[in-house]
Design brief:
Helix content of chain A: 40-55%
Strand order of the largest sheet of chain A: 2-1-3-4
Number of helices of chain A: 9
Mean pLDDT of chain A: 97
Strand content of chain A: 5-15%
Number of strands of chain A: 4
Structural class of chain A: alpha+beta
Largest sheet of chain A: 4 strands, mixed
Radius of gyration of chain A: 17 Å
Order of helices and strands of chain A: EHEEEHHHHHHHH
Low-confidence stretches of chain A: none
Oligomer: homodimer
Amino acid sequence: MSRILYELVGASPEIRFSPHCWKTRMALAHKGLAARTQPWRFMDKAALAFSGQDKVPVLIDGEQVIHDSWQIACHLENRYPDAPSLFAPGGAGRAAAQEAMPLVRFINAWVDTHLIPAALPLFLMDIHACLDGESQAYFRQSREQRFGRTLEAVGADEAGHRERLAHVLTPLRLMLKQQPCLAGQTPGYADYAVFGVFMWCRVVSTVELVAPDNPLHDWRERLLDAFGGLARQARRVSDPA
Amino acid sequence: MSRILYELVGASPEIRFSPHCWKTRMALAHKGLAARTQPWRFMDKAALAFSGQDKVPVLIDGEQVIHDSWQIACHLENRYPDAPSLFAPGGAGRAAAQEAMPLVRFINAWVDTHLIPAALPLFLMDIHACLDGESQAYFRQSREQRFGRTLEAVGADEAGHRERLAHVLTPLRLMLKQQPCLAGQTPGYADYAVFGVFMWCRVVSTVELVAPDNPLHDWRERLLDAFGGLARQARRVSDPA
């Protein structure tokens, strides 16, 4: 069966930085499913017309086309119920995954509405820098419209952004003192939803989102090593050419 | 078996407003467990000495003494496994509850570190007003020290507080468009953790935290009606004497 994942890339097609695409990459790996990457850039709207919308990730899974990282996670969980569960990774079975799904949906929504906006200003200019010229113009125009300020103004006040990010991450920091992963003993989709934000930053930037003594630091290191180091091996802008 | 719940009260012992105590009241009701209320006020530190600390809720459950609303929830889930599950209320069983627990712990930590601070300024002065004189002095002194400002200064800028609360509630609002409860089809401890904040406000204040067209409004109404209207019948400061 052919599986194709449309993923956002920078000027280099090896620079895959979208947090939402990283959620999906980790989810596929968790399920033990291979997928070929189809690089996609902000202006390639026509290339996604087949999906009925204009954002990535889009997964072609055999005869099915699914867009939106959350919908893809639900699709993978339903279509591959015998592979390790994304929502109940401890192995308690399908009913447990059904029960946990709404809670994971909340955490995913929290990532999208709170963690992503809190983290973004710290490496916004690094995202801009990794893009091709046409994407840079689109990125600047669309984000400046959303924020009502220039990218440079959004990125200013690093100390303030760090303080806000630390506040947003507080419940994660507290719980990772009690358990190794957000999902419990082993990682699940709740972890990948958060980890996507760390990969977003790591691929484009050398900024560190958490200090080494933060439990989130060790948690991130473990996820970088998961699935044979899938995430750790991902190409970064800072890698030697 | 005797079960006693130490709960924070205002000048009137019928005014039970603590969000954490409400989490526990709803959890007990969910498990179908009765408990006698022992009213407690901020200054009664000595009355809690038997628990080894100085905060409520404290539950005496037969020979066991448990403090901290999260620890009480875990205790109830473990000690009464055959009663409806708090963590997996859909009925998928004990393994499902084990799997969901870490996710509920995150949501509970998010409530404590984000939702509670965002909601509090909107009815801070109403809390102050419901207390006895000695508790008022303690409340003012301890909270002004925590905030570094007077209570009145914290409560000012209502429009700003409403905007921040709406932002904090965004992931809940989005998911309650998709499903009736945070825990899925029926409420669980994740719901009670959030609902405690709404009861905290409702008991002391006539302030509305969400507009009628917000999905959180209907969700709150359903929880007010749960368990025979346990929460709806709770005495409010605004009730006629």
